[in-house]
Amino acid sequence: MTVLALGFGGPALLAAGPAVAAGSTHATTPAVSAHPLGSAFDTAATRYGVPRDLLIALGYAETRLDGHAGLPSASGGYGVMHLASNRQVRTLDEAVTLTGLHRRALTDDPAANIAGAAAVLRSYADRAGLTAAQRADVNHWYGPVVRYGGAADQTVARLYADTVFDLLTAGFTAPQDGSLTVSGRSVAPQRGDLARVAAAGTGGIGTMSTDYGPAAWAPASTSNYTVASRPSTYPINYIVIHTAQGSYAGTISWFQNPAAQVSAHYTFRSSDGAVTQSVREKDVAWHAGNWTYNTQSIGIEHEGYVDNPSWYTDSMYRASAALTRTLANRYGVPKDRAHIIGHNQVPGATHTDPGPNWNWTYYMQLVTGGSSTVGSGTVNTDASSLNIRSGPGTGYAVVGSVADGATVAIYCQTTGTTVTGPAGTSNIWDRIGTGQYVADVFVQTGHGGFIPGVPRC
To answer: Which of 21, 74, 165, 276 shows its CA 20 to 30 Å from the CA of 302?
Structure first.
């Protein structure tokens, strides 16, 4: 079977191999799409009994529905659904078995890739014992999504699945031509044992970075970096900017895979500028492909792919620049392009990231534009505690609470659900930590809106 024979196939494509058990059961009644990619999602969802919007959200979280012409990600994932084949995640190999499609078709053809992912998800649902009624409810698919991500660390596993369900909550339009739309809705994912696992950055001091306050802490495998005592053992002369060629959760998980032989100190999320640290600044991360530069640099990864500029959001630029400015001040790194460099500038580099779509002019303006302002405020809820949510809106999951009268740091502000509280009615939300948002109307900041100098998320 050739890749060209598959095209954006319909039912004939899916007839190429066996479905998983009871694969004909419909989880949803998918909307008919005139777009080839939409038709592929419709067909795969119907064939394998996977909720269509869940399938699209998973693909969007992984790749923004960009198959990158069959080229692999940094962790060996292929296609719009990031079917992977590495020591930790074997979704591509499972898809070959479940669909009967050739491996090349699954990596290169979007419709085959989507079908393969649907088959794998359905097999996970069957192993979890989901009934037909449960399969029709997107909230019961949390476990299969976790398994699809393949994260070994429970916090990262929750981060991966929460990202998919947060997309379902918020809704989105994709790919770049805006041809597919998933409408937002209220979700209540059945997290099972992961309900007891704190969302990234919300579980107390032990889950936060001790090097950089806004960052969550998810340590890389000790097989993927070198313990050191920098800057005593090696001077820190450079900050190296990378594009991950993968998703936020996927990149963090890859650094925890002992077989990866790669790591970076920090990774940023595209949607809101959230950041996770994987290697302590004193230690040597393996990110530059050049030992001398590894020893003398801090490596910063950014979620996304070099050929798709939509990943490079203002939120990510601003959050990353704030970290780079902090690091430059801490270690005396000059704030210029000779010392804040791209991976492609490292001698002997075989990588091109962050690529031509990275706006160096804007980024350096942010880095050199002065000290980053962190706002603060006092929680005012008229005696009750204030919910902390994973995103800027009441539809996002509650990931914690903060007591009335407590002082909170505000790292950035954005707009979301309109809420009425003691300070009036407003759609402004404050990010008080990684993946932690509170409604501004419950926080006394001394300002009647956005705080001057505090960046937008």
So the answer is: 165
DSSP string, 347-399: TT----TT-TTS-HHHHHHHHHS-PPP-EEEEE-STTS-EEEESSSSTTSPEE
Most distant CA atoms of the chain, gap in Å: 67
The pTM (predicted TM-score) of the whole model is 0.73
For domain 216-368, the CATH class is alpha beta
**What residues of the chain score a pLDDT lower than 70?**
1-35, 176-178, 200-207, 370-373, 434
CB atoms within 10 A of CB 128: 16
Q: Which residue has the tokens 């790669």?
A: 262
Task: Give me the residue spans of the domains in the chain.
Answer: 3-179, 216-368, 375-444
SS3 408: strand
CATH superfamily of 375-444: SH3 Domains (2.30.30.40)
Question: Could you tell me which residues come within 8 angstroms of residue 302 by beta carbon, excluding any fewer than 6 positions away?
Answer: 241, 242, 243, 244, 267, 268, 270, 311, 312, 316, 320, 354
Strand order in the sheet with 238-241: 216-217, 275-277, 266-268, 297-302, 238-241, 340-342
Helix (H, G, I), strand (E, B) or coil at 48: helix
What's domain 3-179's architecture?
A: Orthogonal Bundle (1.10)
By the 8 A CB rule, do 326 and 215 touch?
no
Would you tell me the crossing angle of helices 142-149 and 248-255 to the nearest 10 degrees? 50
